[in-house]
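new request in #modeling-help
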Amino acid sequence: MSREVKFIKKIDWFSILLYFLLVGIGWINIYSASVTTASTGFLDMSELYGKQLVFIITSIFLIILILSIEAKFYERFSSIIYIAGLLSLIGVIIFGKNINGATSWYAIGGFTLQPSEFAKVTTVLALAKFLSDIQTNIYNFKHQLIAFAIILSPPLLIMLQPDAGSAMVYMAFFFVMYREGLPAIYLWIGLLLILLFIITLKLGYIITIVATLIIGLVCIFYFFRKQLKRKRQTSLAITSLVTAIMFILAVNYIFYNVFKQHHRDRFTLVLGLEKDPVKLEKMRKTFGFNTNQSEIAIGSGGFWGKGWLKGTRTRGDFVPAQDTDYIFTTVSEEWGFLGSAIVIFLFVVLLLRILNRAEQQKNKFSRVYGYSVAAILFFHFAINIGMVIGLFPTVGIPLPFFSYGGSGLWGFTILLFIFIKLDANRINEW
Amino acid sequence: MRKLLLYFVIISVGVIYTGRLSYLQLFNDNVVATDLTNDSAIKTVYDYPQRGYVYDRNGVLLVANQPSYDVMVIPREVKEFDIPQFCKLLKITEEEYQKKIEKAKRYSWRIPSVFVAQMAKKDYAYLQEKMHRFKGFYIQKRSIRNYQTAVGANVLGSIAEVNNADLEKNPYYQSGELIGKTGIEKSYEDVLRGVKGVKYIQKDIHNKVLGSYKNGRHDTLAVNGRDIQITIDSKLQEYGEKLMINKRGGIVAIEPSSGEILALVTAPSYNPNLLVGRKRSKNYTKLHYDSINKPLYDRGLLAMYPPGSPFKTLNALVALQEEVITPQTTYTCRNGYIYGRSGRKMGCHCGSGKRNVVNGVAKSCNAYFANAYRQIISNYETPREGMNVWSNHIKSFGLGDYFDNDLSTGRKGRIPTGDYYTDSYFKHNKWHVLNTISNAIGQGQVEMTPIQLAHMTATIANRGHYFTPHIIKSIDGKPIENDHFTKPKYTTIDKEHFEPVIQGMHDVFSMKKGGTAKWLNVPGIEICGKTGTAENFAIIDSVRTQLTDHSIFVAFAPKDNPKIAIAVFVENGYYGARWAGKISSLMIEKYLKGEITLKAMEKLVLEKSLEDEYAKPLSGEPFTINE
């Protein structure tokens, strides 16, 4: 068998099938959400669905390109690619085009390119390279810091655009770091801080501080009595307690003084902080409008959905950003519970598949890369759909393969297919 | 274990999201139901039920319905069409068209608003055939009022399109719907209105009707409004309004044994049919801005006047109850009551002499009641205390406060307390009972509305208990069961004290005893009454000017088992017996006999106009009063 035939046999065709299914279903829904009576055909370039079709076709060329490049290329040039990614993020702040208050796009001729969509790929490459380096020891605090520096530089630059949603996605790397051996204490601290954040907002800072003090002191005196005789442990316990209280105060201060009203409102709505039903109704109708409308649209879909092109709320322009961040609303309205559940199922299967393949990699670079792909896609999927179905505050990030947009689609395509290339190469030890 | 975390999280999120979706899409019906009206894909069609009819106490139909047709518009659905032709059909100009469509757009692009309200039936028939040409417009049928009577506008009230405040207050209403604004239409809105039916109709993108939404699962049937019977006697009401033509004031008649309001007249009034249909807004504006006659102002319920001499009856009762006088106690009248160190005098026209409570009431002796009042208050250590006791007795009649009844409007009146004088009026504690002596004769700080006067009379007629005055008799043929209206309430005055006062009120009509209304007897009916003449003032060119006295009269009849208690108030009618007393007698005869034998008196009242009296203060020239 020739090398090419072997390669084609080893490619994970199942993932590729899932990819094309999701992209295809996505396009059908973009078509439904953006078609107007003035449309002339599938390739009508004045309409979003026409442009998206072009993006999909170019993606196929991208795929062929990615698969035909030597697998080693990605590992070898990852540092350079990463730096290029950082430069593009710096460049966009200087030369970029401001759309809707965020300088996130390069305007080249007639169309725009969003570098933050590609920065994810470059960061994954760099992190995989660093973690797979034989000299890297994840238990070493200094190395942990370097890893975090790689992960956090792009989102810091993205925050300057500002595009908090895209920056938030980098939290996905936490899973990767944990998988690769980051001490569990980080996980617990992270969870504890999230918990404290929510409780502080829900119950007010005074109650939270008092409760934290009581629980903390009880723990110290009853569970660690013996160890407490040692000075170091005592000071550590007290330091933690003080830090926790400082954190609570900081949350309180930041929430009420640093956050803008519209940030606050999003949390207020999702955490159910508003008790007055009249005010709540008003909030739902104003800044909660997107989510409120989206929930109504989803609810109106029922089990079977209204059918393709029959989504009346989708078509009535009730839900904003219907083609991009809220595309899942269209799925739910027109294809009902059945269609939405299938889409969620497809995503979950794809994510598990990638995860599975990643775990099977003998090469650590490939494994970290694959794991990162799964984590990032999962974050997008979870935050986007969570927001659409009203479980998450409004955060503007796209649904992978679904949402309208060339940069997004290409970014996710590159991210996924580099892994497919690495995966197909795994027996061929380099 | 570390390897499993992300697996676990991915699967959990998948399960949670599917669960949430199933909640939103399969089990959560209200998200959809509450928002059907806002859904552009669903056309909401309302079916407005008939508003309940209104009958009088004798079963005479007062208010019925007639169909009305509104042209409605949904701005976002309006397509290009022949505007000039449309305007011609609707009989409006093209500028009006533009104004109306702008207004509708300002309200909402999606929700229908009224474009042309309440078209005539023949216009509707013609327009209906052509309506399909005008996309975004449709005709909504409603039912509006058809008054079978020309009187009682203040009682019956009217319905009108809801305004923004109504819409905000009550989510039931949609723009363009009708709501009771005044009178019983307001107070019995929920009963009369019924519940509109709603049909949801599914449309496709091209606005084509696909059929009933979800097989009519969310549709509701209209519930008809319920008919009500009110306590008004329409014949008495009509007669009262006739007597009050060219006069200002109010008549209130109450059945003492039930608290039912028999007549509620305000003058000047207007024909209720003026406020129906397309001409409503024009007429309403005219009535609303008539600041001289104020026809929309219900004087029977809202005008607070000093009650004048009829209030003496209450002072007599309190004095008897407080045991500061007995029926035998006499005071001497020296053409008035002289008091204070400087010898101030409150004049009296009863012709001097010894007065007891019976002829004190009959002759309306100011001196007698000044003495009695002073005794009541001085019976306590401080005037403040005494006044509080006095005030509590008076308030036990239900005065000085709202009735909390089923009339859509009302006033509290004022029964001052000792605390009021100390805290608000004098603002110190060193006042003397004589500072408030005017209360003895129903002037001073005491103020009452005509309905409160009638209610006071009914309570005296009942010898000490009362039923809260109300206007509803039955709903859908079922008599009311509201304890607030059907259970008697008791005053703090013992029953036996009423007899001498009622005897005095009876003697008011006695020729022999020289009562103040001796010329106003109705043959065959034992009437008890009390005249009143109240001084009043107006500010004319920033000078406080005294006007002709108000003519006041209260009465009940027959003396035993009274059937009617009445209060009449004629603004600037001079002394009580002059107009108010005559009107009382005529009303009583009309109600108890059904016909009038006092033809001369009737003729006099019907022909007399007080318009020249009302014109005096407006003339800008000096004028004389009480002539």
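bot summary: The CA atoms of residues 160 and 336 of chain A lie 39 Å apart.
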